Amino acid sequence: MALLLLGAALACRAARAEDAEEGDDPLSEHRLPFDVLAERTIGTTSRPVEFNWRRTQAHVAVAGDHLFELNNFDSYRAGARARFPSRNLLYEVGLGYVFVLDTTSSRQLALTPYRQPGRPERLELDLMVGIPLAEGVVTTAPRWFPAAELVFSAYAGLRYSAWPGSQAGMRFRDKVTGLLSPTLGRKELENLETRRLQAMAIDPTRYTVMVGLGNDIYFRQGVFVAPRVLMSLPVISAFQTNSLLWWGGFDLAVGVAF
Amino acid sequence: MTRPPARGARLGAGLLVLGMGGCGKVGFVDVNAAFTRADVAWFEEEQTLFVFYEVRADQGIGDPSLIEISWVTDDARVDWTPLEDFTPVHRHVRVDCGPQARCGSWSIAVPDQPRDVDLRLRYHHDGELALEAQTTFNRVGRGSDHTNRSLVVYGVFDASNSFVQWRGRHQFPTLRNEEASALGLRRWFEVADTRYGRDGSIGSTRNPYAYGVPCTSTFPETGLEPVETDERAVFHPTELPVEASRAALVCGTATVTDALGPYESSAWARKNPEVRPAFPTLRSPIREATAIPFFLAPCDRRIDAKHEAMQRQRLLLGDLRATCIDDWDQAGFADQLAATFQDAVEETRAGGDDMVLVIGLHRDTDGMARVVEEALAKVVPEERHWTSPRLAGAFVFDSDARAIEDGGLDPVTLWCPSTLTGGVDPTAPSASLLCAIAPDNPDFELGPFTFGTLPILPSRDQYLDFIDTYSENQAGKMLSYTLRAPEFAATSDHVDLGTFGVATFLNDERFGADARDAFSYCSSNELKPVVFRTPFMESEAFQAIVAELCTEGALPRGFCQTGALGLLPLQLLPEYHSLLGENNYELGIAWDFPFLLRMRFETVAAGSLSALGFSLPFGFAGNGQQYLGTQIWRADAIDLSETLTHCERFCDHPVFGSAGVYRVLLSFRDDFATSCYNPDYPAPGDGGFPVDP
């Protein structure tokens, strides 16, 4: 590092001497001041790190989500996730249970012959990949709080929804094929009839492609906080009736990196 | 000057707009609820309003939804009220019609005739929105019990005719019996004071279950305890007393309920027709007949040694000395040959078995065959009806294909190979047709390869042509053959059916019947060549009647053809008995050929490779089997247990079908003469909801 800095300073000094000797230098537009060169060199050869998450083996976190399904039901998710960092990516496995609640609007809707697409309470399994886009050391407020490592990432992955008890009364072979089907079958929809909210038309989509952005804030001790916004891509649901198309969610995870 | 936006930027902006448009709130969907049934019936005599409904929707209708009813009478107006708010007259169980439907029933006490009866679905008990139904309303006024009440009670018996099952049957103008049950309606009824009687004439087409017909007080009491249920059927746990064995009927006091309280009427149970196989098995001992071999050939010259060897091998004659037919054109040769046959028959008869002449005919002129035919005609037909041991027939393996020309010889002789056409009567069935060969036997050629097969009983031309291409080794060989013929008893009686064959009454196989009995004939895929006759059918009076009716065209052609001979096919027995009611029937077997030849042989799928002027034959051998003659003699017995059913008692009573349905308007006597009778009876422990559409 020192040799690089020295080399850059010498090169800059030599360039300036030549400028003094030659008043009309054709290379003048390509010349840069030393401090600029130094800044660039430092930026590519070193990374200020408060907590090096890449050197950790695994992250464990609890998470809470608020889903925005753009219907009249309230959906909240609680769960846990495990993350496994690599040099450039962050692999994540998450498991959560979604609680679905009526609202005043949905209760009113239940009094009418109309229903609104939604999904009953369920288990969700996430398989996500995080791609760090920007990261660095940041100061915090209040000032007495220690500095932290901030990683801004893009996320993409698959969310698999499972409704416990929905396969009651089905043959083993049908259960297996049903679990792999992108949508709920007729028998599964029948079984969920008693579990849906009164104003709900069940969205039969089982797989959802999710994309989003998130900030991971790592503290020196390994504790991290990860707020994230995810949005669904209606790859499968676009071909289904009673489906939610565009929906998303805000989630916040708190965990520890080992 | 500003630069136009790049294509990628424009595409991105478009997608953003589309995406934002799709990010709007999720819309509502209509559940498309609709009534598929909204039936209401008011029974004046019961003062009860029955409601049946079924609503379907895309999304399903949950527990918060309600079915409401309203009506008007001359004295009051009942506004929209949930059905469950009325105290039901009868029990109604909750029905699961699936996730996309809601259905059920209800019964309400309504003393006065209702008008403007309407049903509707309130989507939610807390909501105001509702879906009105197009209600079907029927009013059933006062009248007979069996027509104007909503429940009929009747009885049936189990297979042993000793246990009574009492059944309730819903009667609604727009609803079937089982539909009412399926929609949750349960009617309580009780049957008590049961009695039994012998008179079988009860019920009518207007009241087939005889519900409400008073129970005869002079009938003896059964002593059975009362039974009750609110399902649709209940068995008496104990069987009828043995004194009731002859009784055709059981009646009892049936109590049902309505809005006014208990209501009593009479219910009847009729015993099932008592049936059994009329003649379970017709046995005919089949024995192996003794072959009497002959090889007829010119002795002064040799026609073809290879062909002769093949003929001897096919008939397994070995070195049997040939019977010379050089003088076939001399006068009296046929008589000499017949005498030779007859001597051999008499010599073999001592063995005690039936016999068949097995003749290899090696000849090159058709005249020789005609002489042999003439000689056989003098010996074979005469004996075929004799008591065993007898000469049953003849099997001739000729040198060339021909058809028998003697009409008397054709029914008893298997002449092979034969032509497909010609003979005595080209339209009549002939056993020899089974070994007919085509005039040509083309090979299949594929480049230098040639493929072909040879029938086991070929003509000389066929054989020589075949071995010229494929060699003698590929011609196949006879492994064994057997001849089977029926043993005729001393009392066997034969009726000649002309070109159809012979009917033989083997050994006094007969059964009796009462004039009031009834029969059912059940056709099957298996051929049952059985005929029957009665003493009356052999009388001149019967023949005269048949002749007259057949002349007038009043009888079917088949009836006329056999009736004139004093016998009829077994399938006509039920109708014959219903018309004439005779009490003695004799069964016989109709057959068209006197013996069965079974051959086991080796056959070869032959091939030949021809190249450079040389021919290399090859082949693939396999075992074959063939029957010639008639298949009737393959088995010793003809199973008639499911073919002819004999009803001895209660033949006019309703019957159970093969699916267990009580067919109250059918009777064994009237409806099963030409149909299969396979009843499936109820049994104690079957449950309370029999199949009763």
Question: pLDDT under 50 segments of chain A (min length 5)?
Answer: 1-15
Mean pLDDT of chain B: 86
| Strand order, sheet with most strands of chain A | 1-2-3-5-6-8-9-10
Largest sheet of chain B: 6 strands, antiparallel
> Quick one: which chains have the greatest interface?
A-B, 24 and 26 residues
Oligomer status: heterodimer
Give descriptors for this structure.
heterodimer, A: 258 residues, alpha+beta, 8-stranded antiparallel β-barrel, two-stranded parallel ribbon, 21% helix, elongated, disordered N terminus, B: 693 residues, 6-stranded antiparallel sheet, 42 strands, 35% strand
Helices, strands, pairings?
The complex is a heterodimer of chains A (258) and B (693).
Chain A (H helix, E strand, L loop, with lengths): L1 H20 L12 H12 L13 E10 L5 E12 L4 E12 L2 H6 L4 E5 L3 E17 L9 E15 L9 H9 L5 H7 L7 E3 L4 E12 L4 E11 L14 E10 L1
Chain B lengths: L6 H16 L6 E2 L3 E10 L4 E9 L9 E7 L4 E6 L8 E2 L8 E9 L5 E8 L7 E3 L3 E5 L4 H4 L2 E7 L6 E7 L6 H6 L2 E2 L2 E9 L29 E3 L3 E3 L13 E10 L2 E10 L3 E4 L3 E3 L2 E3 L1 E8 L7 H10 L8 E2 L8 H17 L5 E7 L4 H18 L7 E7 L15 E4 L27 E3 L2 E4 L7 H11 L6 E10 L6 E4 L5 E4 L4 E3 L5 E4 L8 E4 L6 H13 L4 H7 L4 E2 L3 H8 L3 E8 L4 E16 L2 E16 L7 E3 L4 E6 L4 E3 L5 E6 H4 L22
Helix pairs in contact in B: 5-6, 8-9
